Fold these 4 entries.
Entry 1:
Amino acid sequence: QTESPFIVPKNHVQIESGFNFEKVNKNENNYLYPTILWKYGVNEKFEIRVVSELTSNKNSGKNLTGINPIKLGFKTKLIEENGLIPKTSFIGHLSIPYLSTSNLRTQYFAPSFRFTMQHTLTDQISLGYNLGAEWDGESSETEFIYTITSGISLTERMGAYLEFYGFAPQKNITDHRFDGGITYFLKPNIMFDISGGFGLTENAPKYYTSLGFSIRIPN
């Protein structure tokens, strides 16, 4: 859930894909197969981003499958790390209602944003966190977002992390969650990851599992 403040190198395309299963409750499951984040490095301080999601919701025997509204966005570098000041970037997206299947089309364009921050604690350990907000395209209610994660390099190719995150709707109770995962670099520009987590509050999903694949391609 925690986005990195680092920018994709100039003239590189980075593709981050994930397959996700989420157990909401005893009657409802969510699937993403896959979600894909496309990134392109414009220069040292700016990247453009496209998010596409093929999703399926199964609830009490009913199945709703389709493509969520595609998100167009960017990330820009704001501050380099300096002592107690974290490395900081800003991410903004806009969800486009008409770039979706009709059964998942929203009424309105929906913005989202977050500030992404990271501290280097040692050569092997980092601390990252995000703060932001998003809208669902159906109402004017704001949902605030927080994440905090600690990452550690286990070997030159393998890393691991633990993470707390949550969603705080303007008019409802905050949904808190916990997860963890392992990353593995098959090659310098090819990475696999596996993760899993569970809800910490009654209104959160029971648990989720995910597999991911990422590749960076020079242009």
Entry 2:
Amino acid sequence: MTKFIRTPDSAFSALDDFPFAPHYHQWHDLRMHYIDDGPADGPVMLMLHGMPTWSYLYRHMIPPLVEAGYRCIATDHLGFGRSDKPTDPHWYTIARHTEVLTSLIIKLDLRNITLVCQDWGGPTGLAQAAMMPERFERLTIMNTWLHHDGYEYSEGIQNWNENWHEGGLYCREQPNVGTVPVFYGGLMDQEQMDKAMEENNEPDLSGEAKRMYRAYSAPHRGLDDAAFNGLRRFPLSIPFENYNGGNGAAQSSHYKTLLDWKKPTHFIWGCADPVFIEDWGRIWASRMNAATFDPISKAGHFLQDTHGQEIVELLLGRISQE
């Protein structure tokens, strides 16, 4: 039996900007949470998050996509959001996250899929398109990557990795990860984030910043430190440091496979992101077959938080031109 921690439903009861009913997929003895909103027979938008977020990241995008006729599936990786949180840090590998997502797609028999991926949603989601291309209609790639020979990891991602090691800002018991999307969204400054992380308390925020902080803190608030191990393993699974844990060989294979992708590919990129920088996004798009590239100049790493409506408009516009 897998040892895990399950966040109580009460932790999510105050999220007044996330009105979506929970659904659960059973994977062995663990349950994975996902949102399933919109017409059951509609074309699918499969929306995947990264670190340290969860399906809440897509709260601004789901309603207009549903209105446009899409069935929106937004998942929580195991260890995140409403999904169960295995306590053994060695449980978490990118290969396992990928396998769990594959099982959900097959269980729901998802087809006519538009992939919408960002951060670790890229390696886990693009793997599905590489392995099951017949289920996918198009790719939407936002601020992510696939490891491959010659990929240059930015200073931003190297610093992110370093800060999860001993002596780093996030290497502590029950790290205050709710501050991270708020900071990268430009709604709090570095001094505020550092103080909140070091003191491990709720920062003095208001309005949207406060709502975001509480929502991104909700999945782990009050839980034992072992519940945070899924969060810890993502930054420690980047293939430049942890090739096997990061599924580096498979990522490289999927990258090569998708360079020959013949269906539509749309890049929508937050150009103020210090982690996956604009130059990389443009290079990647130029290597794909007839891919489009839409820059959002003021958007950072978590562009769904800050520019969700604009992303939807750009994506629907590109689909209408296919």
Entry 3:
Amino acid sequence: NLAKTRFLAAASHDLLQPLNAARLYASSLIERALPEEAQRLAHNVDTSLDAVEEILGALLDISRLDAGKLEPENRPVILGEIMSQLALAFEPMARAKGLELHVVPTRALVHSDPRLLRRVLQNLLSNAIKYTSRGKVIFGVRPRGDRVEIQVWDSGPGIEPAQQALVFKEFHRLAETAASERGLGLGLSIVERIGRVLEAPIKLRSTPGKGSLFSVSLPRASGAAVRARTSGLPPVVGEIHNLRVLCIDNEADVLDGMRALLDGWGCRSVMAASATEALERLGEMGGPPSVILADYHLHVGTGVEAVKSITAAMGREIPAVIITADHSLEVQREIRGMGLILLRKPLKAAQLRAILTRISMQLRVAAE
């Protein structure tokens, strides 16, 4: 079992590298003014990459969860924000199936890892919409003493009592829905594992022919803790045009894809395969870099070491983002311990742009 876990982690890491380059190319194409047929093909490529990424991500998640390598970063979470974001993401999917997606507003605050919690709720919502052919899906919250229960109701086919424990097993899919919907039967298995890591029990109640209720139970958090955490954060607004971005990666395809994406956003980018080359090419930028984007595993040293050497040479702190397909706890702790931003491969263009926008805004506020 341990050998299987190590193999999945290594294989997923190696496969995520070329997938990251493909993602960058596809994102760059989608954001350009292309003829209608070319735009359709670019979207189809992006959709296919989504499917590949979903499978690899699921395998990697399971390997990390089974090996005990997933460490939650618990903090106060504003549930309404996560629920609103998910509602926006899934409303088009529900509408396309003729379903009503009803999200009950909430001011509840919980103590959890926001990234892992979002993954759980995303899987539950996706399943509810995917396997419901008519009616509605309700996404809401109920108070339970010193805990909060997040609920996803659906009017789908329901699950027979004998099958209810089995739906959380890997690769198990219900016979009545397996033929009509794409999937591997890994979503609920991941949900159950993450629930154990978060100490957030996942419960299921279902009536065949009437629908199902999946729920997640979490401890409450105080409003004072949330206000303290969010008070110093600037809003995610601003402009990244002319932002000077230094990219370091030993994969030529990744650098080429990154250049295409950043140039399309109007950034002034310089590409380098190592810290040494980056220092040699800084003169091409017309000023110190506003931000450094570095892969973690380089041919010589790491991205963290590259950031250290560049900031030392410049004599100033430079915001930096470390991009990696390595999901190990050691790497995660090292990056965050240095106060650097961590992004995982395959890189999401929208996620990168949001971070660059925030950094641009912070730089502008500091300059004023």
Entry 4:
Amino acid sequence: MGMPKQFNDIIQRRLNIFAAWLPISNTYQLGDYGIIADGVFAKMGNIKELGISFTSGQGPSASIDFTSDSTRVINIAAGAEVDVIPEGALNAKVTYKFEKERSFLVKSPSITVNTIENINEVGTKLIGKPKWQKRFKVVHESYLAKEAVIMSTIEAGTEITFSGNVKALQQLNIGNVSVSFTSRNKLGFDLQGAEGIIGLGLFQLVKGGFLGLGAQKVQVLDDEDKEEPMEIQKLSASTVVDDL
């Protein structure tokens, strides 16, 4: 399994959405459309370029705290291992020991969810676009992660040590700007203390049956079949296959 697909599986299991790849350092926006390629969303354009506007809003906030299995977390204060880092500890550190290769650490204490509020109206307008393809997916939710940490290992036995602000380390808020890290081994992916898009909610226009969860019907008939209405499907990452 490639790294993008592995990351997508983590985001899907924890947040039930699609991963934004590359995470954080991307330019995804509400209204982006594209296809699923190699398990992740590939942007092709934005519906605003097609003359379609929408109303944006915010959904409930979220968070994510994922560490791969067989990973040990060790707290250190004044050179000794402790169960909990005490207040005012000297030389406080938190070390993650990854026993398996290709392990992941994904954390963000605060994720803001931006949404398209008028999905049915947008879907109705898309149906009227002659060049719109039914395989296209549209970003209707974007998940903005703050103080994010996203790291992956290459080799088994990799250790990543975080040091700095004691209060942040006590809370395992290792994405805090006052926390830094070191690793004994080369990492497959390393990002710490950044803010950006980590995940996407997608919808698709389909005929009849479900491709995902949470269908919202649009009462507009397809040009090719006047008897079968189109539906908006809010897609589940666990049920969608590549479009290529």
